[in-house]
Amino acid sequence: MQRFLVYQSLWAMERRRPDGLEWSLDEKLAMIRDAGFDGCGVRFADRDYARTVTGFLRRHGMSWQAQCYPRTVDELGPILAHVREFGADHLNLQADVRPYRLEDCVPYIEGWCRLAEDAGVPLRFETHRDRMTTDLILTLHLLDRFPDLRLTADLSHYLVGREFAWPIAEENHALIHRILDHSWALHGRIASREQVQVQIGFAQHQGWVELFMDWWAYAMRSWRRRAGPDDTLTFLCELGPTPYAITGADGYELSDRWQESLELMARVRALWARIEREPVAAAETAAG
């Protein structure tokens, strides 16, 4: 049976308040566990950090995705060793290179995919600003070159990067849908065309909230059609700290980002439950 797991980003647990008050790692992990998240996104560049966090998650029957930011092909090797040691449902890769031409991207993609395949680690390439995938059109060209490339869709970056006019034109929906038809994991925040992260509960942002819920619904239907009967789709709640989070003149955030993460978790779980009740044929039609 296909499963849907909702993770919380540990980066999103940073507070960065003017008074310097931060939660300890133990507090963060306990909050995530007690709130009912299925697991976390875990930075794997630091072996001791990965061991500590995954040890806690494993003891409490939770799971995780590994995250990495390689600048060369060879930098992925040690990360894969950590994944093989500690496990992960998949490795999420932000390609920390910015080639000018499509052809310059090819050796990186081929090298990283080869290493991950040899290690037996499922690999996802995240759509993200200031990375190889920063531009929507270049990423679509990458999909032309590598039609089996598996993405993690963080659509907030493309909405801001392309600054789609409102309402979103059908041709722009089609571009996003193509990204989602190649996505095997989701990262979640609500953006507007000018801001990478807006408050979920503010009345003036509800149009953007509904836009992202519609895109995520499309992604879930598309994934259901493509995935195997026992596969798992993960959604990482990634409401980032300042400067992602908007602050007032006093430096404090305008909303409670932890409570918004809980609301986002509830919303996407309800969305999945509704879509899961749809027949597979309906999912195929919607994603087609």
3D structure, described in words:
45% of the residues lie in helices and 14% in strands. β1, α1 and β2 form a beta-alpha-beta unit. It has 288 residues and is an alpha/beta fold. The C terminus is likely disordered. The two termini are 22 Å apart.
Number of strand elements: 8
Parts with pLDDT < 50 across at least 5 consecutive residues? 283-288
Helix coverage percent of residues?
40-55%
Overall SS class? alpha/beta
Order of strands across the widest beta sheet? 1-2-3-4-5-6-7-8
Sheet bearing the most strands, described?
8 strands, parallel, barrel
SS element count, helices: 10
SSE order: EHEHEHEHEHEHHEHEHH
Mass-distribution shape: globular
In angstroms, what is the radius of gyration?
Answer: 18 Å
How far apart lie the N and C ends?
22 Å
| Quaternary structure type | single chain
Overall mean pLDDT: 96
Strand content: 5-15%
Quick structural summary:
The protein has helices spanning 25-35, 47-59, 76-86, 102-119, 136-145, 156-162, 170-180, 206-226, 257-276, 280-287, and strands at 3-9, 39-43, 63-68, 91-93, 123-126, 151-153, 183-188, 232-237.
Keywords, separated by commas or semicolons:
single chain; alpha/beta; disordered C terminus; eight-stranded parallel barrel; 8 strands; about 290 residues
